[in-house]
Write a structure and sequence with these properties.
With about 475 residues, this protein is of the alpha+beta class. The protein is globular and about 70 Å long. Strands 2-3-1-9-8-10 form a 6-stranded antiparallel sheet. A 6-stranded antiparallel sheet has the order 4-5-6-7-11-12, covered by helices on one side. A 4-stranded parallel sheet has the order 15-14-13-16, sandwiched between helices. About 35% of the residues lie in helices and about 20% in strands.
Length: about 475
């Protein structure tokens, strides 16, 4: 998994900086039990905890360029690093490791900040350019890897987990706005964190800090999902999806350590495992969690898929006593998080870690392929023209809570984006059925534009 932490703009001597990095990295030792590395220079410190996957012997971090003027700490995996290595070697960049991390260093020398656009993978990294006295931090397109930052008194601190800031001596204050968002969505959305003044770097963004202007940071979006202009028939689209999925899974199979997969028996994970079985050198290791309550138990489906694909399968049936792990699980999260699937995910991860270091999963399939029924529901419900929506909305608000037809009238008064928001967000204010006082609830926008900044990047409704 790996983790990174560090700072720029702090006035510390070498021993103080190294001790601070040790504390910050020590707080995330669970992310990288195999190794720890530091880079310290006047005003800057980069640290990382490593889980070794690629170039186990030679990929220790931080990693620098030929003259050491560029240094990087990196969490993640770059799946096209071999192709990048060939391109950069042709431009006379000299590599001293086989690590995917080093391709980012030389890519930065070649392309500057635009190196992020060349990377295919999941990543969070921090790169120090000594000549420009400048720090670049970046996060992958979909935000698979976490990255937090805080700018205070001309110094930037960054970390994979908020606990590193605590270990570094920070005492941040809880954000009321973040609590309001958490009560609505069940998590704290970027760029907020649960603490005032501490931000998540959003997915597909990079940030630069310069010693020449230490009190400001430049946060830039480098990638936005686009709707392809290409139109194709259903058969052609199916073949293209198969090709893309096969290519994606194959790219994830590079590893110098044991590799497996989480298998639920559903379409997403079963597809991933089937593609793994096609490309793997031996039998794929698969891991599943089941429940004694048959209405929730997917283990038989996973078992059936495992048998059909010939995987080496391991399963664990959870009992009611599993709830005793909740306190320990909560301690692993830096922020409030209300997804009940965290519990089985924790147990299947613990199960898999006994035998493998890397595990693939089918997470994200429902989001990419509209697997949740709420997507269809939001599109199916009729929408009134914007000019007349205030009328049913006003009528609905005039009716008391629980009155017949009130919710339907309120629904007719919303845009389709607003209707979608009501399926993923809960009321926050006590007056609307939530738990928060009005002064906290008013920190949120109304449901009609609750998710507006996420929808803002789209050009309309994809029919």
């Amino acid at each position: 998994m790996c983790g990174i932490a560090g700072f720029a703009g702090l006035t510390l001597d070498g021993m103080e900086a190294d001790a601070l990095l040790s504390r910050m990295c020590g707080a995330i030792r669970h992310r990288g039990p195999d190794d720890e590395g530091h880079f310290v220079a006047p005003g800057v410190g980069l640290g990382m905890r490593r889980l070794s996957i690629i170039d186990v012997a030679g990929g220790q971090q931080p990693i620098g360029n030929e003259d050491g003027s560029v240094q990087i700490v990196f969490n993640g995996e770059i799946y096209n690093h071999n192709a990048l290595r060939l391109t950069l070697s042709a431009e006379r960049h000299q590599f001293r490791t086989h690590s995917d991390t080093e391709t980012i260093v030389h890519g930065y020398e070649e392309w500057g900040d635009d190196v992020v656009s060349h990377l295919r993978g999941m990543f969070a990294f921090a790169l120090w350019d000594a000549r420009r006295r400048r720090l670049l931090i970046a996060r992958d397109r979909l935000g698979i890897k976490p990255l937090y930052y805080e700018l205070r008194d001309g110094a930037l601190r960054f970390c994979s987990e908020l606990r590193s800031l605590h270990a570094g001596g920070a005492s941040p204050v809880i954000s009321d706005e973040a609590i309001a968002w958490y009560l609505a969505l069940g998590y704290v959305p970027d760029p907020l964190s649960i603490y005032q003044g501490v931000n998540k770097l959003p997915p597909g963004h990079c940030l630069t800090w310069s010693a020449d202007s230490p009190d400001v940071v430049d946060v830039r979006r480098y990638w936005t999902p686009i709707r392809p202009e290409v139109r194709m028939g259903e058969d052609e689209a199916v073949e293209e999806i198969r090709r893309l999925l096969a290519d994606a899974v194959a790219s994830h199979l590079e590893s110098e350590v044991p590799l497996g997969a989480f298998l639920s028996g559903g379409l997403d994970s079963s597809t991933v495992v089937a593609l793994m079985a096609r490309g793997a050198a031996g039998r794929v290791r698969t891991f599943s969690i089941g429940f004694e309550e048959m209405g929730y138990n997917e283990a038989p489906h996973a078992r059936q898929v495992a048998a059909a694909l010939g995987t080496e399968h391991t399963e664990l049936i959870l009992t009611p006593a599993a709830d005793q792990a909740i306190d320990g699980l909560v301690a692993l999260f830096d922020e409030p998080f209300a997804d009940s699937s965290a519990l089985p995910t924790y147990f299947v991860s613990e199960l898999a870690r006994r035998d493998v270091t890397v595990a693939l999963s089918g997470d994200g399939g429902d989001e990419l392929f509209a697997g949740y029924t709420r997507y269809a529901d939001a599109m199916r419900r009729g929408t009134l023209p914007a000019a007349v929506r205030p009328l049913p909305a006003l009528a609905g608000r005039m009716l008391p809570h629980g009155a017949y037809g009130r919710n339907r009238l309120l629904d007719l008064g919303r845009s389709w984006q607003g209707r979608y928001a009501t399926t993923v967000a809960l009321p926050v204010a006590v007056a609307a059925g939530g738990v928060a006082r009005q002064e906290l609830a008013r920190l949120l926008p109304p449901f009609s534009n609750l998710l507006s900044r996420w929808f803002a990047g789209t050009e309309g409704r994809d029919r």
